[in-house]
């Protein structure tokens, strides 16, 4: 659909749109959309009501307060949307914290957007949903074949990773930490990526929202590997937020820490985005789970070893 005018209000959808070959049709983005390079030139149609520079504990408290009051974590700019005159707006219903909600978009469209765009809502809970969302976006743009080819390519790459790891004798247990303070474990599509990468997730089931857990539980389960992947944080920011975890009296007792198998990853760019780069996320996990046997070259950009 060459004449499409697309506004993406979720970072993963922006990556899907560009991977489908429609980057030139993007006319607006969310404030969090930053990949592929160059999309930052597009006007940001949303903003956050949460101070991203606050500590993990304060961010968690602010988000919980907003959600408890039935308020959105994000604001959408209907006047800007109207000026951009989109034919398609892509958002999500999976998580109030991840992106502008469907309700907010529908309210903005009804209030002011005269172009009467098609609102495409995504709801990725597991890998199957990610593939379904890619197909949904492609179909909405009149290019279902593009979606089928992209999904086939991504699943083939994951199959290749699985083929490399399933012949390895060990399947280490890994704790995937999606938030540091308070502790949250990653679910949704992450457990599936762990299996593909040749590991066993400590806590988590595919298709479920991530949940809170305690340091006592982390100590009791004592995983072989720890991967810290805070939602929305890159490596540098995650390292800044590590002290509440790393200074806990039990942290140094953990087998993964004593063995030098605790890692900090770029959760923002990889694990938190249900789009084409779930493949790179699986590659990173394979490197952490099977060092020496698997190397896709993500050290330093996708992950770093934790050290005091």
Structure, described:
The chain has 308 residues and is of the alpha/beta class. It has 2 domains: 118 residues, 3-Layer(aba) Sandwich (Rossmann fold); 137 residues, Nitrogenase molybdenum iron protein domain (Rossmann fold, 3-Layer(aba) Sandwich), CATH 3.40.50. The protein has 12 helices and 13 strands. The longest helix has 22 residues. It is globular. The N and C termini lie far apart (52 Å).
State the main characteristics.
alpha/beta, 308 residues, single chain, Rossmann fold, 2 domains, four-stranded parallel beta sheet, globular
Record the SSE blueprint:
Elements: E1 6-8, H1 11-19, E2 26-28, E3 46-48, H2 56-68, E4 74-76, H3 78-84, E5 88-92, H4 102-111, E6 118-122, H5 127-140, H6 144-165, E7 173-179, E8 184-185, H7 190-196, E9 200-201, E10 211-212, H8 215-221, E11 225-228, H9 235-241, H10 243-246, H11 255-258, E12 262-265, H12 278-289, E13 303-305
Parallel strand pairs: 1-2, 1-5, 5-6, 7-9, 7-11, 11-12
Antiparallel strand pairs: 3-4, 7-8, 8-10, 12-13
Q: Based on DSSP secondary structure assignment, what is the total number of beta strands?
A: 13
How do the SSEs run, as a string of H and E? Answer: EHEEHEHEHEHHEEHEEHEHHHEHE
Poorly predicted sequence stretches spanning 5 or more consecutive residues: none
Helical stretch count? 12
Shape: globular
Rg calculated over all Cα atoms: 20 Å
CATH classification class of the largest domain: Alpha Beta
Overall mean confidence score, pLDDT: 90
* Biggest sheet layout: 7 strands, mixed
Q: Please, how many domains?
A: 2
Task: State the CATH topology of the largest domain.
Answer: Rossmann fold
In terms of DSSP E residues, the strand content is 5-15%
Estimated structural class: alpha/beta
CATH H level of the largest domain: which superfamily?
A: Nitrogenase molybdenum iron protein domain
- What is the CATH architecture term of the largest domain? 3-Layer(aba) Sandwich
**What is the straight-line distance between the termini?**
52 Å
Helix content: 25-40%
């Amino acid at each position: 659909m060459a004449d499409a005018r697309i506004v993406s209000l979720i970072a993963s959808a922006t990556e899907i749109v560009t991977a489908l070959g429609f980057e030139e049709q993007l006319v607006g983005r969310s404030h969090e959309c930053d990949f592929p390079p160059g999309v930052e030139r597009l006007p940001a149609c949303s903003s956050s009501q949460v101070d991203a520079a606050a500590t993990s504990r304060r961010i968690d408290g602010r988000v919980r307060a907003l959600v408890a009051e039935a308020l959105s974590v994000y604001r959408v700019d209907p006047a800007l949307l109207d000026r951009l005159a989109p034919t398609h707006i892509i958002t999500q219903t999976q998580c109030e914290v991840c992106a502008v909600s469907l309700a907010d978009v529908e309210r903005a469209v009804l209030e002011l957007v005269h172009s009467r765009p098609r609102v495409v809502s995504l709801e990725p809970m597991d890998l199957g949903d990610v593939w379904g969302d890619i197909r949904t976006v492609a179909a909405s743009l009149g290019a279902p074949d593009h979606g089928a080819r992209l999904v086939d390519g991504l699943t083939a790459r994951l199959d290749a990773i699985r083929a490399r790891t399933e012949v390895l004798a060990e399947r280490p247990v890994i704790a995937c930490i999606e938030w540091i303070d308070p502790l949250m474990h990653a679910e949704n599509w992450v457990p599936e990526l762990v299996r593909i990468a040749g590991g066993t997730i400590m806590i988590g089931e595919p298709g479920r929202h991530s949940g809170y857990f305690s340091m006592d539980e982390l100590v009791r389960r004592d995983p072989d590997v720890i991967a810290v992947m805070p939602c929305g944080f890159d490596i540098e920011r995650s390292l800044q937020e590590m002290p509440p975890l790393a200074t806990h009296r039990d942290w140094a007792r953990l087998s993964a820490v004593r063995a030098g198998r605790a890692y900090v990853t770029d959760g923002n760019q990889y694990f938190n985005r249900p789009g084409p780069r779930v493949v790179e996320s699986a590659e990173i996990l394979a490197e952490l789970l099977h060092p020496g046997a698997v190397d896709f070259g993500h050290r330093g950009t996708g992950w770093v070893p934790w050290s005091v």
